[in-house]
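Hi support team,

I submitted a single chain yesterday and got back a structure, but I'm not sure I'm reading the token output correctly. Could someone confirm the output below corresponds to the sequence I sent? I've pasted both exactly as they appear in my results page.

Thanks,
R.
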Amino acid sequence: MSIRNISCLYFWGILFFAAACGSAAEENARRAAAAAQNPDSKLVPDGMAVFRQKCVTCHGADGALGLNGAKNLSLSTLTLEERINIITNGKKLMTPFGTLLSPEEIKAVAEYTQTFKK
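Hi R., thanks for writing in. Yes, this is the structure output for that exact sequence:
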């Protein structure tokens, strides 16, 4: 691999990383603004937003990408409870999100993944 190719890969990697970090910051700002506007209500996590932030890399936007052994979520027959368990504890190469997401966020993601069913 030439130095030019390596430089190009490095550039695109940094650009992708910066875009991903910006997305997380924007999501946190959106949540904080929503909480400030309505401090008395309990903020319900947005399963789609959390999925896009944490899961799209392997599962894809439609749940069918299958990168790194990720399952095709549109073909999944798992119950909501089984999905919550896998998101919380991980499975094979999948990251366990039990310490990274709140139980409410995990449930919201699990519910969102059920929308992929065909």
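A quick pointer for reading it: Residues 1-43 form one domain. Let us know if anything else looks off.

Best,
Support desk
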